[in-house]
User: Which sequence fits this backbone?
């Protein structure tokens, strides 16, 4: 397979970021391309689909639009009332095999992995930097682990997922690929005063 | 002048170990850490700091805060130069540079000060009454001079070197103001576990506690309160931060001045940060602002608010005067008198009230201060500084003109006319303040849901009462956020003495002119030079509503928004009208509470980041090849690929020709792409497109047009059937977002019975068109598992395959009229696939082309695009009438039948070319009938357009400019290009009569260029009208 | 900042939404060829001073069209529910569809 | 009424400005009038003025719920222009322009009509083509227009962003030299003074709360100061058009929206004409007092709130800095809003209403200030003669059913996009 080219190809450079600090306030890292499979169903049969997902893939589908459930390397994000995103690593084949068993009357799937660039933001100032643009309350009470939100930063649509982490808050930000460079430039600029590091892409 | 001649030896919240040097109007001075520019200037005995807006009168420092109307200065120089900042809010830093304004050649000797002599002729609204004639241009003539004279300060024209940030925050409770009441609220709510943000405009918290004489009780309270706050992790204290706006749904706008107190911001540090805070609740502990009393020459430098004089003495350890007169109508100014006396000044109090309490009298006399009761300052005297004041007796129940009784020498006149609670943020939410007769205050009216007020804002004067009200508000907030059990605040009141502060105001707005002297100007709005006479004049002329008063005199419209002047104006107007103040009403408070730099509100959305840029997966490649870039909506697209020395037209003409000759490759990734799936997808498409979609077989694509519900064309594109229930739609670049929302709207609101899902996959797919006679040859080289024979992949066929290891979707469709294919690959492979086409293309004579050539190719083929799909054209106008199915209804099919949309005279799409070898074809030229020249007639009293040939009169019009053609013509030229194929310019346009006029010569006029060009109507299909190349 | 509580995503700034106008006007059947009815639907709107039922599209969230009742003077949002639903209004984050 | 002139100004100044009289009479409502005009904005007052001046109808009351000029007339960004392209608009707005040119002298009140030029910027070749078409139509209708190249714009307005940093580069612009600004309040006051002098009653603080009916015909109004009979009732209430129409049982092709405006501190002159951004909805000019007056897009949802929200503040400020970088270090001192009668095609409605006795004037959208004189002039004609003038003949209510929208922007029935 040809390499998937990062949308940040021309601008991404690992290294220190902004004001030098003893420890980085923010760490940024582009994630390897995700398999992202969108499944959409209709209200009358969606419950049944969710049950068969649980049965066949072993992952409970979140009830609530803002939560993520994960099993192995597959996470399910409920991005709309009858719409799921499967974010997967190597298990994508399993997920695809499952979706192929569904009839169009029950659910339809769309591959959208290439349409998003995924950036991981961690560090003690991760929330600060996100909130420079993100109008979402990231406090532990309002935005605990395994919660996500779709919103806009700097006029750019994003999906922000708070990852489980024992090591301070960590977020994956899904950005539409066309906007990735603009978003990245915004992010680096916003993070610079907080000091940090850009890691080699994962 | 000795250094810091007015600095007190001891006291104050300043650090005498940190001397700071600064410059004002080029002269060097020193101050101390903790000074503002205003306090440092006063410490150095600098009293004259500016010239007034209209009359260029000398002005000094009037307040110690945000309400400052006078002391506006220009800060910094070069690219950071910034006009109109109040010296009272500028923190001193080493190397600070400031300049006075509105004076020439110098502050002391201002050439424009003569204006003051003619002030009567420049009274409020004078400009409405003159400069009217004799000619139309008179006003323009005078206006030039008026404009030059108006305005304060000059902006820099250099780009702002500083960064600005935006930020979002959320909290349970926002407390605005960190005086005693605000601190008490924040601590109480903080103890209850609320997430609290406390904002304070000042550099340090404490509010008016900082201006109090250094009494150990209150100082101790402040220290303890601040320590507790610091220890509460759920309370965030933001200093140098102003809550300047209260918006819908409890959203507050704050301005944090991150580094304005430094010479330049530290590396990466922003200059200012603009916050949007969404709060559950808010407590305004914003305090009060003192207001002056209006009397003759009340604008002289050396006249100052009593609270300001007190602040300078107590907080900044500056004696703003050595011989002080305090002029008041209430008790609060006595504290200022005592503190100034304690600071070593000679002090006398002039109190307009006939009597004061015995306790106050005793306390004042004990301090060695003389009190003149029943007196007012009739006027101040002095040139560039107050030297003395003239006292007149006054009866507050019925103030009359009277003779001057006495003159007191002084170098500072401290005035207090009462207090105004700072309620602007409530006002912004539509809560009108109400006038309270007893305290002569505008107090809070109906408090909006979610808000509370405490301390001075709630009309409290006494420290204990302020803290109590802060605690009460804090508890109420905690209760509202369901944290009542945990809440406690009582301990904040421990050890505080019972309240003793008194107010006892008797209102006085305007001191009558003393008898037997020439009346002096009495200013109400110092910043806009609006005087009591102007208010009287406004009244005389009927501008009596406060809103008319404001607009006629401009009172309250300056940077300070009338913080010290609004109530006096109301009081004076009420007096003239003989109505209670409450009935006169107030003007509307609007954001921002203090001026906010536009840079801050912009944040990072500036320059190239004003809007994000959408880039194709091949964008880097284009840049590397030196492509010229053009902007379409948010997209940046390759416009043309110039070779060294080539102009835009050289490049696109070469590119266009090459496509028709051999093969071209262009980037179409910006096209909107929508994945449409579901059992009812065919039915859905059949409803939104004008043409039939039920019968489209799998593996085939169809060109479709969709209408708006009003029957006008909305967008066009191709939709391919990928499998039984799966379609892939493309839209125009500009139409993508609109179409996507439209489809979702239909599915979710009107046609909820349809089982269809739509998903935007614009970013998922890189798209490239391979066009030209050798396109098939190139495709076969790159994509080896697809049979590209016409049988296997006919025109409008769709198939899937691989370019080596890259999966591709291939549509055989054409915008150029040549044999062509659109190839789609997942975006991450886009550039690699593009590169492969490019590499393999070398042997097929491949050209890479941009949107300009794309445009040329489509015009040659008569394909409509942006210039034609301009939101007013119908299917029939576009020559696509036949596409509309007659066998089914579709969205827009009803309203498309309206008379105005079916009028046979509507201009329709035609091709156009020059009729002679001379002339220019221009997009935007207007098509006119050569036989129907018009002239105007004034029959029936109104202008009418008359057809010279037929004599028939047409619709009304205004005289034309002489090209002989007038009115609106019979069409226009929409798109023009040079056709390398035809070796001439060609155009698309709309013409009334349309293709029925093929072969006719029409006038294309462009009065903007002074051109009248003969054009011939042709088919819009210039090249290969039979479409042989598509198939061959 | 006007905030709308999307039944799926929670309370959000209104800039995440696209506006769709009057939600009480219902679209005629496609087969209805009556120009008057269509013109009334397309052009003539309820525009009350007070409570207004209107469509909003959560463009930057769940992409659902919502039917919002809002006061056009105070901007207070009174109820929000999915546009496709016609029963009682729902508000808040937890909507169980399955 | 004191005649205004440099001489009277000088004379009165010598007398301490004591001799000036009221600009207009503050009238008490009479029981009945020939015409009651609802709304004391520029349009209502101008209508009264021209009814009196052109048609000799002086038994007229203008009824205003607040203070005259307190609606959109007193809160708009004062741009006056006639760069319209669609037949129906062109001649109307040009007629308005002509009236502006003579207004100060006609009213003996300096309305500070200042034809300092207005430029619509273009940021792409397609926009240049569209500007060319518009400009040509203007010229063919006797309206001045000039297409400026990038260099010409640069020369005329040097403070715009011409750097490589500009997100939307300036390709050129369409200039109307005779366009400009006027002093908004003065227009209301000047017309009020002129109308009052001709016998019109101007009644402030009097809100119309309903209509009086007689056999399906409107014969007067109910107000907060009592009922007033009228042979004809004419509304000119801008942002309250839908609301007042609803009281008469009418639903209109109008949505009410909020539009904000902004002003900076007063500075010395930096920009000498009106400039409109072509990339987003935004425009800038400088007032005589020195403040930069900025305006842009609607808040985007139906509202009678008359106050704006933050996103549009940010949008406009960002646009201001993108277009004119030097504003970065200038300060916003106030922002406010008006409620706009946005019609479905962006063009006005001025005609007899379907209800006998009631006349409609509304749907002015962003552009009704410039229309003030022509609107008054044509509305007076329509009321007096019961027939539209040729100039407003196309501003009918039935154009939507008949398919004759006057859609200057090609936006279709999305009023918030006009
Ligand atoms: C921010 C902003 C910027 C604008 N910029 C421009 C511009 O640059 N150029 C331009 O040409 N146009 C502009 N406009 C549009 C323009 O201001 C208006 O179209 C125009 O002023 C409308 O005038 P009017 O007399 O019809 O309405 P208004 O001035 O609004 O007058 C209507 C009056 O009716 C009164 N009223 C309403 N209901 C009642 C009732 N029941 N009883 C009694 N009285 C009632 C109101 O109080 C009001 O005074 C702008 C508008 C706004 C809000
Ligand atoms: N100096 C005197 O002689 C005297 C006498 C009597 C009363 N007073 C007044 O009594 C009042 C009561 O005290 P209080 O504790 O209620 O208030 P306060 O004045 O002590 O504190 C109010 C604080 O709020 C801040 N503030 C106001 N608006 C703000 C905004 N929008 N954003 C951020 N910060 C803002 C101010 O900078 C100030 O520090 C004071 O205003 C004081 O001036 C003074
Ligand atoms: C062209 C124009 C210029 C204005 N300039 C100023 C100004 O310099 N200072 C100011 O405070 N307000 C200014 N205003 C705004 C008015 O103060 C006021 O906000 C506006 O007329 C709306 O009224 P309202 O805020 O009372 O509702 C201006 C208004 C307009 C229309
Ligand atoms: Zn949502």
Assistant:
């Amino acid at each position: 397979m040809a390499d998937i080219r990062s949308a940040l190809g021309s601008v991404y450079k690992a290294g220190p970021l902004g004001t030098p600090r003893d420890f980085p306030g923010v760490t940024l890292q582009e994630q390897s391309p995700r398999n992202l499979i969108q499944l959409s169903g209709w209200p009358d049969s969606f419950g049944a689909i969710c049950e068969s997902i649980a049965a066949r893939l072993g992952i409970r589908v979140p009830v609530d639009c803002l939560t993520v459930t994960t099993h192995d390397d597959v996470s399910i994000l409920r991005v709309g009332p009858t719409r799921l995103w499967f974010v997967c690593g190597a298990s994508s084949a399993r997920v695809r095999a499952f979706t192929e068993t569904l009839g169009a009357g029950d659910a339809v799937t769309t591959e959208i992995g290439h349409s998003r660039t995924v950036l991981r933001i961690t560090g003690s100032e991760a929330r600060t930097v996100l909130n420079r643009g993100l109008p979402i309350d990231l406090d532990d009470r309002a935005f605990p682990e395994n919660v996500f939100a779709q919103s806009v930063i700097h006029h750019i649509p994003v999906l922000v997922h708070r990852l489980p982490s024992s090591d301070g808050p960590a977020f994956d930000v899904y950005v539409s690929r066309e906007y990735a460079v603009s978003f990245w430039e915004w992010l680096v600029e916003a993070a610079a005063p907080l000091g940090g590091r850009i890691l080699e892409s994962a | 002048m000795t250094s810091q001649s007015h600095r007190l030896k001891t006291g104050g919240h300043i650090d005498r170990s940190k001397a700071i040097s600064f410059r004002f109007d080029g002269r060097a001075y020193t101050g101390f850490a903790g000074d503002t520019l205003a306090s440092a200037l006063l410490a150095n005995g600098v009293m004259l700091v500016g010239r007034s807006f209209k009359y260029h009168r000398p002005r000094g420092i009037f307040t110690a805060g945000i309400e400052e109307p006078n002391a506006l200065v220009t800060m910094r120089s070069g690219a950071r130069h910034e006009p109109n900042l109040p010296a009272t809010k500028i923190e001193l830093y080493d190397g600070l540079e400031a300049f006075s304004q509105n004076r020439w050649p110098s502050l002391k000797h201002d050439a424009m000060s003569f204006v003051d002599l003619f002030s009567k002729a420049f009274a409020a609204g004078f400009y409405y009454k003159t400069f009217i004639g004799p000619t139309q241009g008179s006003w323009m003539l005078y206006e030039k001079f008026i404009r030059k004279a108006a305005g304060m300060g000059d902006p820099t024209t250099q780009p702002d070197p500083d960064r600005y940030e935006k930020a979002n925050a959320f909290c349970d409770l926002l407390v605005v103001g960190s005086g005693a009441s605000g601190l008490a609220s924040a601590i109480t709510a903080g103890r209850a576990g609320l997430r609290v943000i406390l904002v304070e405009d000042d550099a340090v918290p404490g509010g008016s506690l900082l201006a109090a004489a250094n009494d150990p009780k209150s100082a101790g309270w402040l220290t303890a309160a601040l320590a507790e706050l610091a220890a509460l992790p759920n309370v965030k204290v933001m200093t140098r931060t102003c809550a300047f706006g209260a918006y819908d749904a409890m959203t507050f706008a704050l301005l944090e001045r991150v580094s304005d107190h430094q010479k330049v911001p530290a590396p990466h540090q922003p200059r200012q940060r603009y916050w949007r805070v969404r709060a559950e609740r808010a407590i305004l502990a914003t305090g009060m602002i003192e207001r002056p009393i209006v009397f003759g020459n009340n604008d002289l430098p050396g006249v100052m608010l009593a609270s300001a004089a007190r602040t300078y003495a107590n907080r900044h350890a500056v004696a703003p005067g050595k011989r002080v007169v305090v002029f008041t109508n209430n008790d609060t100014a006595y504290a200022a008198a005592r503190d100034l006396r304690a600071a070593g000044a000679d002090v006398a109090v002039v109190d307009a009230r006939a009597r004061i309490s015995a306790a106050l009298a005793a306390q004042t006399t004990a301090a060695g201060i003389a009190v003149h009761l029943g007196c007012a300052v009739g006027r101040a005297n002095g040139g560039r500084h107050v030297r003395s004041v003239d006292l007149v007796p006054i009866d507050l129940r019925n103030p009359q003109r009277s003779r001057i009784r006495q003159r007191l020498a002084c170098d500072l006149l401290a005035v207090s006319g009462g207090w105004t609670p700072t309620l602007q943020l409530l006002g912004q939410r539509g809560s009108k303040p109400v006038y309270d007769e007893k305290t002569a205050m505008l107090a809070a009216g109906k408090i909006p849901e979610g808000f509370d007020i405490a301390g001075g804002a709630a009309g409290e004067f006494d420290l204990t009462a302020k803290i109590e009200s802060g605690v009460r508000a804090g508890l109420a907030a905690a209760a509202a956020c369901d944290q009542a059990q945990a809440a406690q605040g009582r301990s904040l009141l421990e050890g505080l003495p019972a309240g003793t502060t008194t107010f006892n105001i008797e209102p006085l707005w305007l001191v009558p002119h003393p008898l037997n002297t020439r009346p002096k100007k009495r200013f109400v709005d110092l910043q806009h030079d609006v005087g009591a006479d102007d208010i009287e004049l406004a009244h005389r002329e009927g501008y009596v509503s406060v809103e008319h008063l404001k607009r006629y005199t401009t009172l309250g419209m300056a940077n300070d928004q009338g913080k010290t002047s609004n109530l006096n104006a109301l009081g004076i107007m009420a007096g003239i009208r003989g109505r209670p103040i409450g009935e006169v009403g107030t003007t509307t408070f609007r954001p921002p509470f203090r001026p906010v730099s536009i840079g801050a509100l912009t944040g990072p959305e500036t320059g190239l980041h004003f809007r994000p840029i959408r880039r194709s997966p091949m964008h880097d490649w284009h840049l590397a090849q030196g492509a010229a870039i053009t902007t379409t909506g948010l997209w940046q697209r390759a416009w043309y690929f110039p070779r060294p020395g080539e102009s835009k037209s050289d490049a696109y003409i070469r590119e266009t020709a090459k496509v028709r000759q051999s093969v071209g490759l262009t980037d179409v990734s910006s096209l909107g792409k929508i994945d449409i799936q579901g059992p009812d997808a065919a039915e859905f498409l059949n409803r939104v497109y004008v043409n039939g979609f039920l019968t489209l077989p799998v593996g085939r694509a169809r060109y479709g047009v969709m209408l708006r519900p009003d029957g006008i064309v909305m967008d066009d594109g191709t939709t391919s059937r990928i499998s039984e229930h799966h379609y892939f739609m493309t839209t125009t670049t500009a139409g993508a977002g609109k179409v996507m929302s439209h489809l979702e709207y239909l599915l979710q609101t009107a046609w909820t019975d349809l089982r269809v899902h739509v998903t935007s996959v614009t970013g998922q797919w890189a798209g490239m068109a391979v066009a030209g006679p050798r396109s098939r040859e190139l495709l076969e080289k790159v994509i080896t598992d697809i049979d590209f024979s016409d049988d296997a992949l006919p025109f409008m066929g769709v198939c899937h395959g691989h370019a080596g290891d890259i999966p591709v979707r291939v549509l055989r469709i054409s915008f150029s009229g040549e044999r062509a294919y659109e190839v789609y690959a997942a975006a991450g492979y886009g550039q690699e696939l593009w590169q492969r086409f490019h590499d393999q293309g070398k042997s097929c004579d491949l050209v890479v082309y941009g949107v300009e050539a794309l445009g040329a190719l489509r015009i040659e083929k008569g394909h409509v695009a942006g210039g034609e799909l301009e939101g007013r054209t119908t299917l029939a106008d576009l020559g696509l009438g036949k596409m509309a199915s007659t066998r089914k209804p579709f969205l827009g099919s009803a309203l498309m039948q309206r008379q105005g949309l079916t009028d046979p005279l509507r201009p329709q799409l035609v091709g156009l070319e020059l009729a002679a070898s001379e002339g220019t074809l221009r997009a935007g030229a207007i098509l006119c009938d050569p036989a129907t020249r018009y002239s105007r007639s004034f029959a029936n009293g109104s202008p009418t357009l008359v057809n010279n040939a037929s004599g028939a009169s047409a619709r009304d019009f205004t005289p034309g400019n002489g090209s002989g053609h007038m009115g609106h013509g019979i069409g226009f030229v929409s798109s023009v290009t040079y056709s390398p194929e035809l070796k001439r310019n060609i155009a698309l346009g709309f013409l009334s009569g349309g293709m029925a006029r093929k072969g006719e010569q029409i006038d294309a006029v462009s009065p903007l260029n002074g051109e009248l060009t003969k054009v011939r109507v042709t088919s819009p299909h210039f090249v290969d009208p039979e479409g042989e190349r598509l198939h061959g | 900042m006007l905030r709308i509580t999307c039944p799926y995503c929670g309370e959000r700034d209104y800039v995440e939404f696209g506006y769709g106008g009057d939600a009480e006007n219902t679209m005629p059947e496609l087969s209805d060829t009556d120009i008057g009815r269509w013109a009334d639907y397309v052009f003539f709107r309820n525009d009350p001073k007070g409570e207004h039922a209107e469509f909003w599209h959560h463009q930057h969230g769940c992409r659902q069209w919502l039917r919002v009742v809002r006061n056009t003077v105070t901007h207070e949002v009174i109820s929000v529910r999915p546009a496709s639903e016609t029963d009682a209004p729902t508000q808040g984050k937890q909507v169980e569809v399955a | 009424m004191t005649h205004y002139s440099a001489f009277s100004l000088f004379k009165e100044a010598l007398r301490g400005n004591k001799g000036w009289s009221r600009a207009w009479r503050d009238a008490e409502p009479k029981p009945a009038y020939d015409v009651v005009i609802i709304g004391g904005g520029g349009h209502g007052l101008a209508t009264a003025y021209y009814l009196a001046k052109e048609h000799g109808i002086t038994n007229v009351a203008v009824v205003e719920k607040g203070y005259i000029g307190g609606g959109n007339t007193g809160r708009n960004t004062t741009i006056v222009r006639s760069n319209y392209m669609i037949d129906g608009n062109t001649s109307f707005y040009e007629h308005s322009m002509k009236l502006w040119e003579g207004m100060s002298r006609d009213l003996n009140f300096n309305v500070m009509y200042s034809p300092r030029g207005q430029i619509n910027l273009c940021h792409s070749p397609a926009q240049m083509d569209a500007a060319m078409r518009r400009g040509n139509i203007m010229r063919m209708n006797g309206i001045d227009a000039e297409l400026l190249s990038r260099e010409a714009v640069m020369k005329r307005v040097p403070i715009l962003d011409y750097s490589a940093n500009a997100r939307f580069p300036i390709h050129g612009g369409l200039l109307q030299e005779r366009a400009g600004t006027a002093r908004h309040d003065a227009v209301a006051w000047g017309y009020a003074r002129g109308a009052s002098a001709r016998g019109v009653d101007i009644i402030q603080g009097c809100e119309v709360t309903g209509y009086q009916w007689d056999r399906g015909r409107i014969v007067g109004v109910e107000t907060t100061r009592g009922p007033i009979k009228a042979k004809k009732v004419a509304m000119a209430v801008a942002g309250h058009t839908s609301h007042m129409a609803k009281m008469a049982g009418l639903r209109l092709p109008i949505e009410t929206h909020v539009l904000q405006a902004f002003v900076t501190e007063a500075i010395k002159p930096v920009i000498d004409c009106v400039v409109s951004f072509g990339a987003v909805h935004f425009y800038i000019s400088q007032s005589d007092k020195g403040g930069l007056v900025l305006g842009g897009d609607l808040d985007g949802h139906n509202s009678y709130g008359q106050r704006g929200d933050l996103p549009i503040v940010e949008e406009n400020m960002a646009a201001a800095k993108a277009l004119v970088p030097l504003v970065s270090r200038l300060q916003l001192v106030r922002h406010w809003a008006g409620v706009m009668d946005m019609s479905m095609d962006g063009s006005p409605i001025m005609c007899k209403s379907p209800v006998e006795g009631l006349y409609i004037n509304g749907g002015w959208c962003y552009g009704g200030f410039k229309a003030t004189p022509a609107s008054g002039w044509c509305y007076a004609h329509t009321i007096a003669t019961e027939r539209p003038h040729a100039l407003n003949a196309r501003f009918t209510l039935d154009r939507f059913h008949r398919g004759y929208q006057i859609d200057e922007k090609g936006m279709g029935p999305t009023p918030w996009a006009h």
In short: Confidence is low (pLDDT under 50) at residues 938-943, 954-962 of chain B. The interface with chain C takes residues 247-249, 251, 276, 278, 687, 709-710, 741, 744-745, 748-750, 752, 889-891, 893-895, 897-898 of chain B (CB under 8 Å). The longest helix of chain B spans residues 463-480.
